[in-house]
Every structure is written in structure tokens, then in C-alpha cells.
Amino acid sequence: MESNASLVFNREKLLDLFTHFKDGIFTLDSSYRVESVNPKAIRILRLNEQTIRGKRMPVLFPSNHLNLETFLKNAIDTKGYTEYKNYFPEYKKWFQFRAYPFENEFSVFIKDITGQIQTEQILTIEREVHVLHATQSPIQNTLNYLLKGLEKIFPGYHAGLMELDKSGKFLNHLSSPSLPSEYTDALNGIPTGLNSGSCGTASYLKQPVFVNDIKTDPLWTNCNALAVSLGFVSCWSFPLLDSKSEVMGSLGIYIKESKLPDVEEAKKLERFSYLISVLLEHKRTRDTIEFSNELYKTVLAATNDAIWDLDIVNNVMNWGKSMKKLFGYDSELKPYTLEDWKNHIHPDDRAHTFDEFMKVMSSDHLMYWEDEYRFIKADGVFSYVYDRGLIIRDEHGKAIRMVGAMQDISERKNSELMLKQLNDSLEKRAIELQSSNNELEKFAYIASHDLKEPLRMISSFLQLFKSRYEHVIDDKGKEYIHFAVDGAERMKELINDLLEYSRLFIHETSPEKFNPENEIKEVLRIFENEIKETGAIISYSGLNEIFANRNQFLQLMQNLIGNAIKYKSEKIPRINITSYNDDIQSTFTVNDNGIGIEKEFQEKVFDMFQRLHSRNKYSGTGIGLAICKKIVAMHNGSIWVESSPGEGSSFIVNFPFR
Ligand code: ADP
């Protein structure tokens, strides 16, 4: 009884164990017919117990039934433990079978090892992809290989890779082994954003998006037609993020049934997306480096400079090909150190150039060095060079590398030297001229001053002669005397003007700041009679302060206003004086409505003795504007005229503040 009870108990225990066992268990008779099956096995096969019981076990696994027959026969023959594993497409799963024979019956354990196999396969693919990548295989090949592997591990899944374009707003198709081309073509240029399918949304949200009904899901409303027509029902998308969490694209998984991934599956697919992200980021870095290298090569080929690259840590300086072209040295000559460079600098420039270079390099922040010095060429001749370099520092600010370019500027330097010599000699000549000018000006002053006295004598004796002998000389004689007196008068005027002009060189210009209204009023007083006679209307208002010598300014205005009255046309003279100040100078304008000046004479009128009319028409000596020009020049200013014949003239004068 006791032993029976314990047997019952044990059997119950066994059944309980059987029920809760985590593997599926079948018990089979000698012809492999299923006698009993535990709930786990039913769950694994997704069949009901009635269907399973009494069936020959291999029949339940049509894709592998022959292999299973062999496996079970083996188990009975060897009376030992046997194992068999394979993929079962009818269940879309990997199963492992273990058989334990017991007399003529036996138990077979079945285990779903899909997850485990997938993990192993993923690891294998990862290894292979790393090898491909390391051997610099084109990225497209590597990505294709990876996606093919994904589709092999997850049968029935179609993978599609999209890459974000440069604008960061649109996705372009990059790779997919099994999506139809009409679909991948349609994928090009889809925008990122909500309602832009699973991929557009995942890229926008930067998180995975799982859709198990493309037809009805709101995220697909705008773009589901083609996917639906191709039979796709589910689409899961994973964003591809770079190391800074910026989106680079997305990985889409298309499935022709309604399905959501379980946690394990989602993790595995995510793992694929990480690997793809790493590859893509690498590709981008590789592209950037390749581009920079290309650029560097182009610059090297295009430049006439000798490019150098100093590895500061190892003290090795490499030179570009122009080193040979410019300076005759073989650029392959190695090793070339910093000291070698120093020794090629002209002894007179060496210490200064090298010290400055070291100063910049040993600072912890300066990034740029430049200098001009003489560099010895292979033929022993020195060239002037302009050399500059960019410093690359490590995270502590220590200079580790420097890249630079040396330019032969001998031609420029020699021209500069020649120019300097020319300038020096011109300066010398100008000083000589200045002093001879000074002499001449002094001479003009003295001469005109000394000429006045004998001229006064000629004039007064002529007057005396005229009054004493007028009654005894005939009309012709009187006419001659008149000409002589007139000539003497003109000569007096000329001498006076010349004196006035040369006086400008004798007296120093001592400028001051003042409002010139009084000076203008003074000029109007001087011309009181002329103004009355001609009915001239002279206006001025709002005059600004000026920085000039008062007397010379008065003299200038006297000439300009005097001329404006003198060179009047038929019309009543209207003269307007205005001024304008800016930050650097005062500008005066004397505008009239007189006869004006032809364009071709507008510069000449400022030369000495330049007159445009006969003395009979307008009196004058032609020196007034020359005086104006001299005064303005002495104030470092400028004067010019703008005029239209028959309409009037504007004389414009600038006086700088210093
Ligand atoms: P002058 O008045 O003694 O002849 P200037 O040197 O003052 O000498 O002037 C030179 C010439 O410029 C004048 O002969 C005249 O032809 C011309 N000129 C000067 N000012 C004016 C003006 N406001 N309108 C027209 N012509 C002028």
C-alpha cells in the first residue's frame, strides 16, 4: 500500500513536473506515435492536443520529417541520448530535439531555440561585417551584406535603409536587398516628420516606430498606397543615430503580415540599427577625411608655395614638391629637423626668426606664426621668403604639429628695395627742390620788394614830366607818355600781386579755430563800392567753425568773392556762400551766377598768370586763384571749381581740422 501510494504520489509529481516543464515533451510509442504531450509542446506547435495525439511525430514537422525519422530511429538503435536541431519554416522557428529512449517507448524534448540561434547568427554577421569594413570594402557592399544577413535571420522580413540628405529634412533610399525597386524608387526624397510612414516618423521622433497595419495606421495615411499594393502589412522602423544623437537615417523592416515585435526581437533589430549607425558614421568620417586629403593634394598641386608639415613630437619636417621647384632641395631628403630649417636661415635673420617661431610654438594658445626672412637655396643664393604656419595643439595646449607654407618673395622684396631706393632719391630731390624753391620764393619777395622803389621813381618822374612839359609836347608825345604811365601802373599791380603771393612763403601759417562770419563781413566791406555799382546780392548763413589762419582765409575769400563780382554776366550778380563740416574737415563753397568757365580751363585758372580774358574786358593779373591755391595747400586742403559757362561757377574749398 505504502509503496503504491508513493508511486501514485511520484506519478502525480511527475505529471506536475511534466506540465510545468519549460521544454515541450512528447512521449512516443515504438512507431513514433504521440502518446502524450505537455502543454508547452502544444504552445510551441500552436496545435491542439487532439491533432497531436496519435499522430506519428515526424508528420507534425513536414519540412524535416525524413531527418526526424532518422533521428528517432537512431535514438532507438543506440538506446542512448540523441540530439537534432534545425529550422522549421512551417513554424518559422528553430527547434532542438532531444530523445531519451526507455525500453520500447521514449520521450522527446522539444525546445524553441530561435532566439539563441538568432543571437549566434547576429554575432557571426557582426564579425564578418567588421572584417569587411576593416578591409575597406565599399560601404554599399557592407550594408547590403548586413541587410541580407538580417533577412536570413528573420525570414519573411524585408529590410530597407534610408539616409538623411544634407538638408536634414529628406530621406533617400540607401540599400535594401529584397524590396522591389519600384518601392525603393518611391522612397527617395520622403520628408521626415509625423505622418511620413514609419521611417519618416522614426527619424523625426528619434525613436523606434512599430506599425502593424499600414493600411489603417494614421502615420501611413499619406503614403500607404504602394506599400499596401505590394502586400506589406507591418512596418517597424529604427532611427539611425550618430554619436551625438543626430539622426543619419532609418532602418525599416517590412513584413507581409500583421505583427509587432516582442521585446527580444526588438532588441535584436535595434542591435542591427546600432551597427548600421556605426558604419554610416564611419563612412561619413571617411568621406570627410578623403575629401580633405583630396583638397590637400589639390592645394599642393596648385600652389607655388613650399608646403611643410612639422611633426613636433618626433621633430621631423616633411616638405612638399615645391621645395625642389622653389629652392632646389630634394623634398624626399630625410630626415629634416627643426634645426636643419634653422641652419638654412640667413645668419643675420636666424636668431630673430627662430626665437619668434619658438615663442609662438611654446605658448599654450597661439595658433598662427608668420615671418619674412632670408632662406638659403640649394645653389647657395639667399631667397627672401614669406613663411607662415598653423599650429595644432593637444588638449593641454601643447603644440604637436604645425603645417605651413613658404613663399619665395625675392622678386617682390627686390622691387620693394628698388622702390625704396627710388623713393629715397626722390625724397632727396624733393628736399633739394624745396630748398631751391624757398630760395626762389625769397628771391621773388626781395625782387618784387626792391623793384617797387625804382618803379615808383619811374611813375613819379613820368608824372612830373607830364605836368611840366605837357604844353610843349604834341599829341603823339602825350599818347606815348600815357602808355608809359599805364605800363608802369600795370607793372605796379603785378609787383604788388607777386609780393602778396611770395609773402605767403615768408609768413608761417598759424591756424586757429574760428567762425569766419567776421572775415566774410570784412570782405563785403572791402567790396562795398563794387557791390553797390553792380547791385550784387551776396548771401551767407549758418557758417561753421573753421581751422585756418585768419588772415589767409580773409585773403582767400577776398579773391573768390572779388572774382565772383568781377566775372559777372549780364544778370545781377547773385553770390551765395555756404559751408559744411564733417568729422575731418570744413567745406566752403562760393557760388555765383557769372560767366562761368569752360571745362578745359577749370584746372588752369589756378596757375599763376593764367587769365582767360583781355585786360580791356576784365582787369587783373591772373594771380588771385594761384594765391588761393597756395593758401589752401598750406592748410593741407584742396580747392577746385565746378562750372557751366553762361550759368555760373562754384569754387569749393576744403580745410581739414588738422
Ligand atoms: P584775375 O582775376 O586777376 O584774372 P585770377 O587768378 O583770380 O586772376 O583768375 C584767373 C582767371 O580765372 C580769371 O582771369 C578768369 O578768367 C577766371 N575766373 C576766376 N574767377 C572766376 C569766376 N568767378 N567766374 C568766371 N571766371 C573766373
Major sheet characteristics: 6 strands, antiparallel
- Structural class designation: alpha+beta
Residue-averaged pLDDT? 87
What strand line-up does the widest sheet have? 8-7-6-11-10-9
Backbone CA Rg: 54 Å
Tally of individual helices:
19
Gross morphology is elongated
Descriptive account of the structure:
By secondary structure, the chain is of the alpha+beta class. Helix content is 47%, strand content 23%. It is built from 19 helices and 23 strands. A six-stranded antiparallel beta sheet has the order 8-7-6-11-10-9, sandwiched between helices. A five-stranded antiparallel beta sheet has the order 2-1-5-4-3, with helices on both faces. It is elongated. 27% of the residues are buried. Residues 1-9 have low confidence and may be disordered.
Chain-wise SSE layout:
Layout: H1 2-20, E1 24-28, E2 34-37, H2 39-45, H3 49-52, H4 65-78, E3 82-88, E4 93-102, E5 105-112, H5 114-134, H6 139-153, E6 157-164, E7 170-175, H7 181-187, E8 190-191, H8 197-205, E9 209-211, H9 225-229, E10 234-241, E11 247-255, H10 263-302, E12 306-311, E13 316-319, H11 322-327, H12 338-343, H13 347-362, E14 368-376, E15 382-393, E16 399-408, H14 410-469, H15 475-506, E17 512-514, H16 517-526, H17 528-534, E18 537-540, E19 546-548, H18 550-566, E20 574-581, E21 585-592, H19 624-634, E22 638-644, E23 648-656
Bound molecules: adenosine-5'-diphosphate.
